[in-house]
């Protein structure tokens, strides 16, 4: 049985640029890749900035980062992805 990746989505606020968002992620020392946005054309798309998918080795690492990022003024939201759920 293949174990699912331990992932977290971080969405930055609209006024936060891509380079600033990447600097925040880099300073946190997390593995990340640019996220997708299936909400193009919807209000959410226009209210939010850069989106990233973070990958972790352990649930503890994920929880620690999630707690820290939720406190950042630059972050719009942090959540665990549900890849089985169709949002559109």
Number of helices: 3
Q: Structural class, judged by helices and strands?
A: alpha+beta
Give the mean pLDDT: 88
Q: What is the radius of gyration computed over CA atoms, rounded to a whole number of angstroms?
A: 13 Å
Rounded to the nearest angstrom, the distance between the terminal CA atoms is: 30 Å
If classified by CATH, what would the architecture be? 2-Layer Sandwich
Listing every helix as H and every strand as E from the N terminus to the C terminus, the arrangement reads EHEHEHE
> Quick one: how many beta strands?
4
Please provide a written account of the structure.
This protein is an alpha+beta fold. It has a single domain (6-79), classed as ACT domain (Alpha-Beta Plaits). It contains three helices and four strands. The chain has a four-stranded antiparallel β-sheet with strand order 2-3-1-4. The longest helix is centred in the C-terminal third of the chain and has 12 residues, at 59-70. The mean pLDDT is 88.
